[in-house]
Every structure is written in structure tokens, then in C-alpha cells.
Amino acid sequence: MDSDYGVAKELSDLQKQRSLYQPELPPCLQGTTVRVEFGDATTPADPAGAHVISRAFPHTYGQPLAHFLRATAKVPDAQIITEHPSVRVGVVFCGRQSPGGHNVIWGLHAAIKSHNPNSTLLGFLGGTDGLFAQKTLEITDEVLSTYKNQGGYDLLGRTQDQIRTTEQVNAAMSACQNLKLDGLVILGGITSNTDAAQLAETFAESKCSTKVVGVPVTFYGDLRNQFVETNVGFDTICKVNSQLISNVCTDALSAEKYYYFIRLMGRKASHVALECTLQSHPNMVILGEEVAASKLTLFDITKQICDAVQARAEQDKNHGVILIPEGLVESIPELYALLQEIHGLHGRGVSIENISAHLSPWASALFEFLPPFIRKQLLLHPESDDSAQLSQIETEKLLAQLVETEMSKRLKEGTYKGKKFNAICHFFGYQARGSLPSKFDCDYAYVLGHICYHILAAGLNGYMATATNLKNPVNKWRCGAAPITSMMTVKRWSRGPSATTIGKPAVHFASIDLKGKAYELFRNNASKFLMDDIYRNPGPLQFEGPGADAKALTLCAEDQDYMGRIKLLQEYLDKVRSIVKPGCSQEILKAALSAMSSVTDVLTVMSSSSTFVGQSTL
Amino acid sequence: MDSDYGVAKELSDLQKQRSLYQPELPPCLQGTTVRVEFGDATTPADPAGAHVISRAFPHTYGQPLAHFLRATAKVPDAQIITEHPSVRVGVVFCGRQSPGGHNVIWGLHAAIKSHNPNSTLLGFLGGTDGLFAQKTLEITDEVLSTYKNQGGYDLLGRTQDQIRTTEQVNAAMSACQNLKLDGLVILGGITSNTDAAQLAETFAESKCSTKVVGVPVTFYGDLRNQFVETNVGFDTICKVNSQLISNVCTDALSAEKYYYFIRLMGRKASHVALECTLQSHPNMVILGEEVAASKLTLFDITKQICDAVQARAEQDKNHGVILIPEGLVESIPELYALLQEIHGLHGRGVSIENISAHLSPWASALFEFLPPFIRKQLLLHPESDDSAQLSQIETEKLLAQLVETEMSKRLKEGTYKGKKFNAICHFFGYQARGSLPSKFDCDYAYVLGHICYHILAAGLNGYMATATNLKNPVNKWRCGAAPITSMMTVKRWSRGPSATTIGKPAVHFASIDLKGKAYELFRNNASKFLMDDIYRNPGPLQFEGPGADAKALTLCAEDQDYMGRIKLLQEYLDKVRSIVKPGCSQEILKAALSAMSSVTDVLTVMSSSSTFVGQSTL
């Protein structure tokens, strides 16, 4: 229904009020004069992949960081972009819908128009399909009026989340050339931003003048690295889900007879589950990263839950709330192996009915052990990125059933003396994705939209818009841009026989850092959460009053301002250079040499270390 | 965990702010002087049951309505209750937890203490089990501090929702006598209030001095009649669910490829589903009352949905949102019949494994036709009131599967030419029940709590607290009390072989009135909802700003103020009496006789009419 995109919507009272909310801009983006300062050439966090990445992206690898500063900032090397010729920019929704996406477009539009009213912003209708087919809608203030600060992607719609095949890349290039676009802004997660980097490289190589910019819009929260602290949508999704989890906790405590197993959307990583745990304090969460790190089997996890149920029953507590990230199923080793076999058979064209007959004896035994509903779900075709259809696999029901069986057994054997175990299962999936965005997401998305314009005005290609120092108020945020290639890692492990991504650079997928501060915060409280029912209810998403300005707890727990600290380092180096100029005393030179030699020794050892701990430990 | 009831909770910022919210009182309840005016003796709406009810409740049937008025009200017959000796009152959570329950206790406590600080309010710990076991917690301001305006029932907990067997009734009476209670306040829905009426009758008969008061607290919204406009919790549940439904609608419109089947909690009636439909405008809702009225089979409903999918596909729309009330399964004739057979076999002690073998050939054929997951769910033991375990039966999945099969068939046959049909199922159940109560529910519950005290102060037994004229601001609300017996009807139909309630009076269960204004509002818009995607997003529950004071649309659509109109009628009758006094002219007497004879003729015909249309058409 192309004709329905971008039509004015009838808004409820609350939506109307939200549509009038004007996000603040950090000082550096206020007014029409913005300075750009370029930092050093960038390198990916994992040095082992640098060579592969540089070869795959000869035109766009190693570009410098860009910092956007206010016009009055006293930075000698920064350039002021004074000319703002009219530009034509296209924007496309690529990843799954994430609350705040509309505000990126609004911010971009506001920045474009404030610098030159003759500039044009075109939205591609129907996501990537619209890009390939060159279907556009000109974004105007009128078009935006009922979409400002609203959820969903219904302004433009979205279809597939990839621009990857030669055919797709060529279609995208034709669109950019035919529409005479100076810039193409791509909103999405890891997959879409990896595609954006590839598109930028291809455009540069083909001398296509369109610059490509990526924006981290994905509520999964897994596009995190030195430069990107969080993703648009993550805050909202966690708040909406935390509200619901808290409600279930209150319910559990009122009736005191059910264990609730709640599966949360969030793909492979457990970021959403961890954040919700910190916000609402359920009794347990089975983090995929912990399971993978400890190689816990389905039986280990079942036993862990059963032991918890038993320990609680000994304190006369016969209720509880357990969170299950949807990605858990891929973290459990034997289920992962089974899924890989199934996906391999899919790849070889074996029909669903025949797959079970073609499984290896080991996988077949596991498959037959599983309840029928989960067998059916495991047999579903994998997604475009070879992962299982996580939203369709009811891991929460599988675990609830296994726990129930085990508790009945313990009850019969007399090892468990509590009440009959009762489970209720919930999937908190699509009900959060279309939510009105939180104030944080409204602001963050709007600011990123503005930054996209400045990236294009600076003539940069293959960059991602970044705003950092986010745990502080908006007026402390730092705005910048980093080459997408600097966020890449190279996959060195197989993801099953149908995987085609091994050895290919991709934007780094951040799982929960088990050495990070957010995880530590959880671990320090996990036993209290488990036993003491210290449920916390942040309440429904608010836009005024207490809670309206709350930020994600995982965001606030981590060290931040990597961009600021990189700049600080540069200042130290400049200072050394200015003190130790030719002509300085022997003593000063000696001291400097000794100190620098020690620093470089330490850093050489650290950076060549084979234990790459992941970009999330910043 | 008795020791955990009533402990101070750690509140989030929003919860803290809510705990400071002070609900307003209607003028009649302000201050410490309240007048009581008694109306005429009451009669149940269905005259056919009056005789049965009066025989079952000889001591409590036919009591007058009570209106609470401000002390300065110019009503000659009203009494001012001037003496407020110290009283001992007990309060117990009976039904399922419903947002606002805590505020009834708070309101009751505030009223009791403001009239006599020496009075005592005892909360029974663990619901009815606590009542039977005489486990209490004295309610104080300190105990209440972290529960004011908060969701759940965790202040006191709840267990079974019935006080019905002789053993239970005797235990309740012993508790009241041993604890020297002047009053017992019971919070709950239809079942609990029916039990409250029975308890009041038994106490009166046994000369037990404890007066029993019921409060309509049930988010199902099915305890509605002339005197009760809505129930505590309904507003909150509908708002929380409408938010989520709207989010899913936005999601559907963004990706344009899924049909969402959402099952909503709400027991047998479809009130929650209708209210949510009016709030968020999903494409379809399958109301149980419509299905029952038209005797639609599973295949009729499937066809209805398939035809809608097809019609939408012809307009290039391949997405949609369909609401399924959890009670639907009992409204579909053949499924209901099957459930009755199953429950009958349960009643005869047939084990779950053997039930399918004992079904009649017809039921067996249907049973075998159904997918395995639903068979398993249908076999679950019925609830205490003989209804199926609705929360466990995934009707949404059954319908999605049937529709998918039919659409594939139509696709093959070429009658359907749209895209492949994709369904995603959701159950919006326990995630709403524990929510922070909406402002309306906070106010309504608090006011009802106050009224409970005045009922007891007036010495009334077997009454329900009522506040009416609710679509107007709190200062226009009318406060009163009606005998629970006047809200009763007598069940004349079997609910399966295990039903024991036939012929017994019970508080009238209100299903959606298909001749009512709320339903009419829906019907007038149903085709637009279906085809035009005029989704509306009321947003998350707000406590400040737009939407915070919104009220249920079904509440606002209906004619209200039955209590006010009853009073108006009394005024007319009084006026007639005062004009047509002995000594008036022949003409006046003649005119009065003629008019009154015509009025009484009409009313006689109408009230003897065998078509009792239900108490919900008011």
C-alpha cells in the first residue's frame, strides 16, 4: 500500500502532545555554523582483522574520526564548513522497526533545511524495495507533522534488511545516480550498517558521487563499540518490557502460586534481558552469554532453575519470574548444533517433512526427546542472516516444561517438598517494538539525524553518525562520526554449513561483556534478586514527571566518553610535542624518551595480545 | 510467605510519586458528617427471579437503596449519622488481583480513622485462607505508605476466590466473631460478591452481628448492573492492553507482512476486548457475544477472518491485527459442547489420558480434528466455577492455524491472489494485571473504600458499595449502596453436568449488550477499522498530561446515572402526591388518574415481558 505511506495520521491526545515535543540539540549543533575537527586515522579494535578489512575496503578504510564542535570552539585545526550548497539526500529504513526511527528523519530534515532551504530530502517508500525501485516521497514539514516523536516505521515502511547482492547494490547505485543524490542515509543495525559500508566502498570505487552514511537504529542494542554507546530504540524497548515484567512480578507476589517464564525479543545477544533485569529485578535471567561461556546444556539450565525453585520453596516462596532472552536457544550448545544440522539440510534443499530422517543419530536423539511444538519451531527456515527464527521458537515453554517434569520427579522422590510447580509462559515480542519512543530515544535519534547532515556537508563517505557521553544531559553530548570500517571485525568461526560470512568483515556484533560493569552490577545483586523478591516497578513509560528522563542502567553503568578520552590523549601527545621541541634540554629529552619508551612497550604488548576481549570492553 | 505481606517496598521514582497522589473525594464524602437517605425497597432487574431470590435471602432481600449525601443537602428524610463509635472492621482480597485493590483498603482505612481514631482495620493475610485461619495484619498509615496507588494485591495477598462451602462459611463466621468484627469488607467480582451476599444472609440468620459489604473489584468488567457502572481495575487493564495493541498495530503497518492474533484476558465476557477495540482501532475483534448470538462455528469464524484477509489483500494490504477475547472458546457452540463433555468426564473422575476415548463420536471427531496443542489445553481441569482454564487455551493459535490452512488452500485454488499469509500470535495476559492503577481506578477504588465505611456506619448488611455518574468528574459522582440481592439473577441453563449453580441466585453476570451504545459505536466503525487501518495509539498509561484523565470509552458511551434517575422518578412521584391531595379539583384528579393509568399500563406490559434483555441495558 504505497499510497498509505506518509499520510497524515489521526493522533490520540497523548500522541498529539508528543508530536509537539522539540528535542534539544547539543551546543555544537546549535545554529548554522559547525566546526569539524578530524582526529587520527582509525583502526579496528581487533588488530588481527585490520589487514583483511583494509584490503576489503581500500577506499574507505583508515579514514579519520570526525568531531563536530561549536563554531566558537578554540581548536586550531578545525575547519568551519561555510558553504552549504543545496543538496539532495535520500533516506531509507533498513533494519527492523525500532522506536525513534522517525526522529532520525526529522532531525536530518531539520538540519538540511536550516542550512539551505533549497535542499531536498527524499524518503524511500517501502524500505530497501523502494530504494531499488526508486520509489520516493519528498519529506516536508507537513509530511513529518504526525510522525514526530512517534513510534513505528510507517512513515516510509520497510521490507528486507539487506542491500548486499550485486543486483541489489547496482539497483541502489542506479537509484542514487538517477535521483542525483548527494547522500544516502541508511538506518539499521549490524547487517544494514555492514551493507552501508560496502555500498560506500562500491560507490567510491565506481566514482559514484553519493556519500553513504549509517545510523545505529536497532533496539537489539548489539551495535556497540568504542564509538557507539547505544542504539536508537533500545531505551524504549527496555522500558516498555520492564514495565510489563514488573507487572508480572507484582502479579506473582500477589497470588504466590505461579512461576512466570518470560521470553524477551532481542536476537542473539541478551542486552535487552540484562537491562530489563536491572530495571525490574525479576528472580532470574538466563543470559545467553553466560550459558555460552559456561557451555551450559539444556539439562544444566533446567537443573539451575529447579534448584532455584526448590531453594525458594524452602523459604515458603512458590512463585517467581524468570527471563529468557530469545537468543538463548542458539547459546545452548546442543540446541545450536541441532539447529546447524537442520539449517544445513535446509540449505541442501531437504524438505521440512524429511529433515528429521536426515539428522545424525546424535541430533536425531535430541530432536526426538524434545516436545512436538518445539520440534516444529526448530524446523522453520532460517532468517536471511542464517540465524534461527528466534521469535518463533518458544524456549520459555520448553524450559517451563522441562522444569515441571523435573519438579514432579523431585516431588515424588521426596527431595522437593514444596507446592506443585505451576508455570505460565509469556513472549514479550512485538508489543514493544511499535511503542511511542522514550524521551531519550526521541532526543538521541533527532541528534543523530542532525549529525548525518554534517557528515554529508563535510563530504564524508562510509561513516556512521555518533553521539557519545550519553549518560550525561544532552548539552554534554559529543557529536561525531566514525568510519564504519573502524567498527568491523572479521568472523573467524563457522555459523553452520550455509554460512557465507566467514572471513568477511562485518560491523562488530557486541554480546554482553561478562567483564563489564553492567554485568558486574547484575552479578552483585543476582542472589538477592533470586531469593528476596526485591521486585522494582519503573512503571509505564512516562513523558513527564519522575522516570521520564531515566536512562538505560546498562548505559549508565559503563565507562563512557571514548571519543572524549581519545581527544584527551591527543592533547597529551600535542603537549609532549610542544614541550619537547628541538632545542629543549637534555634532561627533558631524556625524561620524555624514557617515559615514552615505557608507554609504547606496554601498549605494544597489550595490543598484540592474542586475547581480543571484544569491543564492548572499552 | 506470610511474613512478607505488608512489608514496606522499595519504590521506583514513579512509584514514589504515585504513592504521594491523594485521590479526591466527592463532596458528599468530604468532612466527617454524611447524610444517608434511603430509597424504595429494591427489586432485581429480572422479575422472573425475584421470588427465588427472596426465598433464598429472607433476611437481606428487598432492602432499600441507600444514598450518601452531603450534610448540608436539603433532603428532609435523610438521617445524619452522628455517632461514630469505634469499630473493628476486617477486609479481605477475594477475586483475582485487579489494579486499584490496595486503594479500596486505603480509602476504607482513611474513612474509619477520620471518624474515630480508635477504630481498627484488620487485613486478612493470604486472602480467604487467611480469613478462615484468622490471620490478620492491622492496617496502619505506615503499613499503607508503600501501597497507596500501587498495583497488585501484595499488601495482603490472595488465595481462593470463594467462601461458599458450609465449612468455609462457618470458618468465616468464627473469624468475625472471634475477632469481634463489626464489619467484613469483601473485594472481588461476581463469585466473591455472590458469596458476600450469602455470608450476609447467613450472619443475619445466625444473629452474628458482623455486617458484610461487597466491593466490585474485578478487571473483567462483568459485574455491571443498574447500580454498578464499572469495576475497579477495568480501566487500567484496558489502558495497558490498548497501549500494547496499538504498538502492535504500528508494527503491523511498518513491516506490512504479518497478521497479529492477540488473545486478551477477560474471562467469559468480551468487555476488555471491546474497550480495547474502541481505544486502539485494530482491524478486527471476534466478540464472544456476537459469536454466541449468531451461533457462529469455528469454521464460520475462520471464514470470516479469511474473507477479511482476502478483501484487504485486494487493496494491497497484507497485514492486520485481530483481537480474540479469551472467553471466545466458550462462545463457539461446538467447542463449548466439547468442553462440557470433557468437564463432565473430569467430574466422573476419568483421567486425562482416558478422556478422549470416552467422548461421544461427534465430540471425538471434533477433538481429533483439532491440533495437538489445543487438545492438551482443552483437557485441563476446569476452574472452581466450572469454566474452562481460559488463560491456558490458545484460541489465537488455533484460529491463526485454521486461517493459514484456509488461505493456503485459497492460494492454490487461485481464489486468493495476495501474499503468503503470515500470522504471529500473542497472549496479553498477566502482564497487565499487576500494573500501577490508572488515575481513574485510584480514585474509584479510594471512593468505594470510603463508602464501605459509611455502609457499616449506617448498620447495613449485604450491601455493595456503589459510586455512579462516573463519566463525570469526581465532584459529580453519586455515592450510595445497593443490596447485593438486587443485583442477582437466577441461572436457568445448565453449564454442563458438573454445574451446581442452576436455579441458584447469583450476582448477574453482564456480557456485552448487543443493543447497547458502546457496541453500537463499535459496529458503526467496524468496517472502517477493518479496511482503513485507522489505528489509534492512546500511548502508555500516563499520570500527568494528556491521557492521564481519560476514561473508558465503553463507560462514557453508555447512559448513566441510574441512581440519579431513580431519585428523579421519586421526586416526580412526590410532586404528583403533593399536587393531587384530597381536596384537589375533579379535573386535576381526572387528569392524574388518566395519566397514571396509562403509565402503569405501559410499565406493567414492559416489566412482565418475557424477553428479559439483561441488566446491562440500562
TrEMBL record, chains A, B:
Family statement: Belongs to the phosphofructokinase type A (PFKA) family. PPi-dependent PFK group II subfamily. Clade 'Long' sub-subfamily.
BP-aspect Gene Ontology terms: photosynthesis; response to glucose
Superkingdom of the organism of origin: Eukaryota
Short name of one Pfam family: PFK
NCBIfam families: PFKA_PPi, PRK07085.1
Organism of this sequence: Dioscorea zingiberensis
Annotated function: Regulatory subunit of pyrophosphate--fructose 6-phosphate 1-phosphotransferase.
Pathway: Carbohydrate degradation; glycolysis; D-glyceraldehyde 3-phosphate and glycerone phosphate from D-glucose: step 3/4
GO cellular component: cytosol
Regulation: Allosterically activated by fructose 2,6-bisphosphate.
GO molecular function: 6-phosphofructokinase activity; ATP binding; diphosphate-fructose-6-phosphate 1-phosphotransferase activity; metal ion binding
InterPro entries: PfpB_PPi_PFK, Phosphofructokinase_dom, PKF_sf
Domain (Phosphofructokinase) ranges: 88-453
Protein's recorded name: Pyrophosphate--fructose 6-phosphate 1-phosphotransferase subunit alpha
Subcellular locations according to the entry: Cytoplasm
Keywords noted in UniProt: Allosteric enzyme, Cytoplasm, Glycolysis, Kinase, Magnesium, Metal-binding, Transferase
